[in-house]
Amino acid sequence: MNRALRLVRRRLITAIPVIGLVIIGAFLLLEAAPGDAVDAYILSLGGADANMVAELRASWGLDQSPWARLLAYLAALARGDLGWSVSFSRPILDIILERLPNTLLLMSASTALSFMLGSALGIFAGARPGSLRDRLLSVGSLALYAIPGFWLALVLVIFFSINLRWLPLSGIETIASGKHGFDRALDIGRHLVLPVASLGIIYLALYLRMMRAGMAEVWRQDFIRAAQAKGLSRQRIVLRHVARNALLPVVTMLGLQSAAMLGGSVVIESVFAVPGLGRLASEAVASRDTPLLLGIVLVSALVVIAINLMVDIAYALLDPRVGAAEAS
Prior knowledge:
This protein is mainly α. The protein has 13 helices and two strands, in the order H-H-H-H-E-E-H-H-H-H-H-H-H-H-H.
C-alpha cells in the first residue's frame, strides 16, 4: 500500500508540468487560429459597424495583447476560476459540470464494454492460437476496427431507431418525462445503448486483437511449458498464467486509449445529440468561444491524467514488480 501511495504521489507531481504545457499550448494554438468570438457573433447578426465591434472586443477583453490575456487567464485559474463563456453568458465551470457527467457516463460504459468483452473474446481466441475460432475472431475484429465510428453510429440509428423503433433516436433521456429513481435510470440506459455501442465496438476490436496477440506470445514462454509439464489443466494455464500475463499490455492500452475515446465522444455525442463535453467542444469551436474551449481542454486533460493514474495503480496490482524501483 505504501508503494502504491508513493507511486501515486510521483504521478501527481509529474502531472503538474503536463497540465501547464496543455494550458499554454492550447492557448497559443487558439490564438493562432483565425477569428474570435466577436467575429462569430457578428456573423450570426449578419454584420455590424466598426464601433459596435470595438465595444464588443473591449467588453469581452479581446482588445488586449495575447500575453496579457494569457497572464490574466493563468491568474484566474490560480483562483479556481475558469472564466466566463461569451456564447452561453454563464460561468464556464458551471457549464462544464453540467455536461461532464454525461461524457463520463458514456466513456465509462463504452470502456467497460470494449475492455471486458474485447478481453474475453481475446482470451477465447488466444486459448488456441491458429484454430478456426481464432482466425474468425481475428478477421472479424480487423473488419470492425476498420469501420469509421460515425458511419457505424448512423447505421445503428437507421436500423434500431428508425426501422425497428426499438431504441431512442437521440438525447440522454426523455425530455420532461417526469421519471425518477429506477425509471429514470432505465430511460437513460435505453438512450445510451446506441452511443455506447458505437463508441465501444471499435475499441472492442482493438482489445481483442491485443489480447489474442499477447496470449500467442506468452504461449511460447518457458514457464508455460513448465506448467504443462507439471500436469496443470489447460483451463488453469489459460486463465491463471497465459491470460494474466497477456493482460498487462492491454491494461496499458486502456490508459492510452482514454484520450482517443474522449476525442471520439465528440463525434458520437454530435450524432446522437448527447449533451456532453464533446458536443460542448464543437459548439465552442463554432462560436469561437476561446475561454470555454480552454476550459474543456483543461478538464479533458485532467480526466485523461486521472484515468492513466488509475491504470498505473491497476498495472502495479497485477504485477508487483511494476513501479517498485520508481516508488522506492
